Each structure stands twice: as structure tokens, then as C-alpha cells.
Fold:
Amino acid sequence: MIQETKIGLARLGKIDPENINDAIALGAYDGLKIALSLNPDEILVRYESSGLRGRGGAGFPTGLKQKFTSQSCAECQKYVVCNADEGEPGTFKDRTIMQNDPHLLIEGMLIAAYTIGASKGFIYIRGEYNLSIHRIRKAIADASSNGFLGSNILGSDFSFELELRLGAGSYLCGEELTLLESLEGKRGYPRIKPPFPAEKGLWGNPTLINNVETFVQLPAILINGLDWYTALGTSESKGTKIFTISGRVNRPGFYEVEMGTTLRQLIEVLAGGMKDGYSFAGALLGGAAGTFVDASLLDTPMAYETLKAIGATMGSGAIIVLDNTTDKIDFLQNILEFFKHESCGKCVPCRIGTTLLSEMASQLKTNPEILQKMIDEASYMARTSLCPLGQSPVLPLKSFERYFATAITNV
Amino acid sequence: MNEKENQSELLNHLHELQNSHPQQYITEEALNQTTQKFGLTKAEVYGVVSYYSMFSLKPRGKYIIRICQSPVCHLMGSQSLTEFLKQKLGVAVGETTNDGIFTIEHTECLGQCGKAPSMMVNKDVFTELSIDKLETLIEKLKTEAK
Ligand SMILES: Cc1cc2nc3c(=O)[nH]c(=O)nc-3n(C[C@H](O)[C@H](O)[C@H](O)COP(=O)(O)O)c2cc1C
Ligand code: SF4
Ligand code: FES
Structure:
């Protein structure tokens, strides 16, 4: 029987999220205390050896990112930024963490800041997440009055200020460099990479930017040790991951499991299988910028390497389940309209390409051959677009063709 | 905070201005006041306001209904909810009712997909929507608005 293993959601339901004493009684800020007793370089080595990879979508090794930011410039002001923009359709894990245990996020950011030598941090949260905004605000105030934020934290030499900044309804602002533009109070247009944030981030300063779920893995690694952490998951995917399952399953919701749990275990056991009268017809993994899979792939372990081997992505951990009543072409069209709506229009291939793709999708039912043209267009966009948004539509399109081509010819 | 860091408060500030106006929009006066406060040009502030979909330069209703049109809600039937709302309120998406009570807007994923279809009315989230639920809610809001 598959069970949940909880790191990010360990205190969920056991504390009043608005009461710091509840969180402290269950170990909040214990990881910070350990961190402060260690040398930052020592912590860096631990996070590098932990195998932790970023949970925001790209899966970049977290320890390496910390090292780059830490070493990028000795004297200048460094920043730690939390990406809490969570706009990928089908994803609601960061909201679940922030609403239920805001102090865990603050602790994770504090440890990261101490590790890389940053004295200032921002949480950039999407403007629609009102309850999370309220709870994080309160948590920051309470952490400050309890000596966990501010000057000389817990009597050490380490000082850290943390502030909250709101987004205002733009999916693209979840992309890290666009997020930094928005955080600087500008329009959400992407910057050209490189330089990466580790080198030139906020106001040109070295900036460590991680997803909410990445930060909340940090305290447990110090508290429980490397051996414990690296025993969780698979060879190349360590720790736990929160998957958010939606669609017509019996128990849609969030599940935190060890990396490597199979799609079948997630959908059939944890989410309770399909609702009465519905059957499984495939899934979209990782949100709109994700990949489709069909029933033949249900036994795939959800880990970076195993998903990559079948041409699929982990992305944000979204699992959108399709059923026998889903009009797959209509669903695909909806995804393409999403990209059209969220394209910032700065570069031509994406501005025109996303419009073209959604128009072509509307012809799919009468003209199935157009799918190949759509893939060609999306591949062209992937090669020529300025930022990853324009490079994304090819993912759902190619996997759609691979698994659901018959859905088109059988209309 | 230095001057640069100050500008990072621009979006927070615009949210506050918009929330404190009964018609939930950024007025000309608010724009002007913002340029002064942040030492920006009007074009710069206008550029920011017009970029983000949560901000509006036109007056809106007392209640902004933001209905999710992203894949999960779409899959779970949000389109028929939008049709129902349009008919019930007699306005198109993006418009405000004549009595100034409701504005219908589309939004992308609200992170409430586990309980789709979902929407927000101002700051409140409503999930597992059906036409019946919507009907009841609209009637209730109409009464409260009076
Ligand atoms: C269009 C787009 C939207 C994104 N949205 C998010 C988001 O909402 N949250 C997030 O953490 N990462 C998002 N990302 C990924 C970030 O660019 C970045 O990889 C991430 O913040 C790095 O954090 P991590 O190393 O902890 O994963 C997005 C990327 C793209 C291209
Ligand atoms: S790829 Fe799309 S979203 Fe990215 S910069 Fe170009 S137009 Fe904007
Ligand atoms: S798709 Fe509608 S809330 Fe996520």
C-alpha cells in the first residue's frame, strides 16, 4: 500500500497556520538553529550532496544554484527570492504549503539566505492568492517579533529582512527573469538569458530564486540528515514531491509522496481512481507547458529520469486526468488559447505563433492533417522564441500526436 | 530601503488603490498620484497598469466575477457556467451590468483545480460550481448590493 511521505506538508492540519507557537512546538525553525551553528560552506556541501532539484518545473540542482549565487560576488548585496507565482494550470501545491505552514517557507528562505550570504529577501506571490497572502503577511510579522527575522537573528551575526510582493495576473511572471522584472515594479517582459539570476538578478545583483516547494525541503535535510534524505526517492530524484491531481477522480487534491511513486499509485490508490461512470483516457503532466501520457504509461515512476526517458516532464507536479467524456481536441485547443492569452507579445514567433496555433486547433476536427503543420509551427517557435513560454507549446502538441492521434481521425 | 527597492512596491500600491475604490479600478487621479509617489513618468505607470490583467483603467462593478477558463475548469464544464452568467446578467465577458453591480471577467487557472470549476468574486473563492450554485450566489449578491 502506497503512503504519503511528508516534508513540505508535515505540519498540515496539526497546527493553526496563523499561530507561530503551534509551528514552533512542532519543530519550526529547528533547521535554522542547526544552520546557524554551521559554516555556510559546510551547508552548501550538504545541499549539493542532497541531490535536491528545483520543484518549480525545470528541476535544476538546488545546491549548485546556491553555490553559483554564493560565489558570484563576495562584496555585493545578494537577494533571495521565492517564486510563489504558481500559475501553471493544474498546480496548487505552493498555495497548499503557504496556507497551511507559512513558517516552513520562511525558515527555508532563511536557511538559503544564510547559506549564500544574502541579507534581504522577497516572496513574489500571485495576486489572486488572498488567503496565502494574509497568512504569509502574518507569519512574517510573527517571525520578526520572535527574533527569526531582522537583525542578529537568534543572537547570531546573521541578519535577514523579508518582504512580500504581489503579482497581478500574469502567468509569464512565473518565469524567473520575468518575475524579477515584475518585482522591480515593471511590466512583465522577459530578460535575455544569460546572465542568469545567480550572476545578475534583482537590480543587477546576485539573486537566488527558488520555488516555494524547493525552499520547504531545506530545513528537513539539516534536521534529519543527508542519509535520511538521500534514501528518499530514486537515484536521480531525491526527496518528496507534491503532486496535484485534478479531473474526474474520486479524490482530487494534493499528495506528497516520495519521488518515484508511479502514476498508477497516485491516480488509482491515492486519488481513489476514476469516479463512477468514468474511465481513464490519459493525463496531462506538468500543466499547460506539459506533456500528455496515455494508459500504457501508468506504471512510469514519477521521477525526473524516468519521465525524461519516455519524453514526458515532471513540470510543476500537476496531473490533469482526462476521462472518456473529455473532448481531447477541445482540450488541446483550450491549452493553446492559454498560451495565446499569456504570450507577452514581445517577440514575433510567439506572438504570431500562439495565435496561429489556436486558430489551427479550431480546424482540427474538420482537417486532421493540420496537426502536423501545428507541430512544425510549434517546433519553429521553440527554436526562435525569446523565452521559454514560446518554447512550450511544442510539448503538449508532440505528445498529443504521439498518444491521441486517433482521437483526431475518429471524429 | 533604497530608491530602487521602493519601486518594487508599485504593484502592491496599485492593488491597494484599486481595492479601495468602490468601482475597483485605477482612476486618472490614482495614476497621477502614483507617478509622484514613485518618481515615475505617467507613461511608465500606465505601462505597468495596462500590462497586468488584474488591473483595470475602466470602472468595474461592485462584484468582479472572475471565472476560470483554464484546462481543468474547462474540462469540468466552465464554459456552460460562463454562458449562464452572460445570460443571467445580460452582459458579455469584460463588461459591467448597467446597475454597476457585476463585472464578468475570464481568468486563467486560480490554483483551485482540485475543486473545479472555480471562480473568484472579488477576494473570495468559489469552487465545485454548478449552474444552481451560481444562480443562488448571484441572487444573494444582488440582495446584498442593495
Ligand atoms: C512561463 C513560465 C512560467 C513559470 N511559472 C513558474 C511558477 O509559477 N512558479 C515557479 O516556481 N516556477 C515557474 N517557472 C519556472 C521558473 O522560471 C524557475 O525555473 C523556477 O522559479 C526556479 O526555481 P526552482 O529551481 O526552485 O525550481 C516558470 C517558467 C516559465 C517558463
Ligand atoms: S516567447 Fe512569447 S512570452 Fe516569451 S518573450 Fe516572446 S512573446 Fe513574450
Ligand atoms: S484550471 Fe481552473 S482553477 Fe485551475
